[in-house]
Amino acid sequence: MNETQVNALRQELEAAKAQVDALNAELDETNKGVVALYAELDDKANQLGESLQLKSRFLSYMSHEFRTPLTAITSITHILLQQMDGPLSPEQKKQVEFVRASAVELSDMVNDLLDLAKMDAGRIAISPEWFDMVDLFSALRGMFKPMLTQSAVTLVFEESDQMPKFYTDDKKLSQILRNFISNALKFTREGEIRVGARRMPEEKVEFSITDTGIGIAAEHLPTLFEDFVQLDNRLQKRLRGSGLGLSLSKRFAELLGGNVGVESELGKGSRFWVSIPLHFENAAIRDSPT
Asked: Which residues lie below 8 Å from residue 38, measured CB to CB, with a gap of 6+?
């Protein structure tokens, strides 16, 4: 190899080394950018975590503080409606019933907010137990009976003798069904609401609440289970809520290993359903009582 070839090779090596040095410098700059980006992401994540904690603490504090006066209002209106201190005129009774209904509705909203705060903070616990569907339906029937004494709506529970015992959190399941039934009662002025259950494949059961109410337009169905969603219609404007009942029902169903859904046609009624496993899978199943 002559000197000319050696010089040419030396120049190529120097050019390659310069290119490698430039690539290393560029890689170092990229690494610094990545490190800075991770640091910024960590900072944003910490800020988000702090914001979520503040929100949860605020909602929890507000909910607890509201409960005492709401309980007092509900108790006082109950005493007035019992006319223990003397009779009420028809107009007075109407106004007191309105106050009581408003207090109950606000109390439900407070409970929804408290559940939301607990869920965001990861403090919702699942406590599965063995229970029968007939007991669940009996409790729900007794709960809603006072609301139907002067109503044009009939609440029907379709019980099945073929349903086995459940092993799941009956309180969470009951809250889902209460939310669905309460929603149906709000938007069904006459007719009936049917509550039923059926076995599904893969050891699941589907509970459904079918009403003959005002129904829901198709464009509203995809967002119905999102937080704070309220439909824009004449009856909804008269009957306001927190917009959290259906969202919380979805979250509770997911905690139980299931899901929720809705089928509806405007002017013809709705069918809400929740499907959950017969046996909650994320806990050791104790022996079924005999």
From this structure: none
pLDDT at 286: 54
3-state secondary structure of 132: coil
* Overall residue count recorded for the chain in this entry: 290
Check if the beta carbon of residue 20 is closer than 8 Å to that of residue 78.
no
pLDDT of 182-196, one tens digit each?
889 888 988 999 999
pLDDT digits (tens, 9 = 90+) for 64-119: 777 788 888 888 888 888 888 788 888 888 888 888 878 877 887 777 777 777 77
The CA distance from 14 to 6, in Å, is: 12
Interatomic CA distance for residues 232 and 224, integer angstroms: 12
Q: How many of the other CB atoms lie within 10 Å of CB of 58?
A: 12
Tokens for 52, please give them: 């979520």
Q: How many CB atoms lie within 10 A of CB 158?
A: 12
Of 171, 187, 170, the closest CA to residue 239 belongs to 187
Task: Label the pairing between strands 153-157 and 191-200.
Answer: parallel
Say if CB 204 and CB 278 are below 8 A apart: yes
Task: Report phi then psi at 164, rounded to 5.
Answer: -75, 180
Alpha-carbon Rg of the chain, whole angstroms? 30
d(C-alpha 245, C-alpha 88), whole Å? 34
Asked if the model's pLDDT at residue 237 lies above 50, the reply is: no
Q: Assign 149 to helix, strand or coil.
A: coil
Q: Which residues pair with 155 in a beta bridge?
A: 193
Percentages helix, strand, coil for the chain (3-state, rounded to 5) are 55, 15, 25
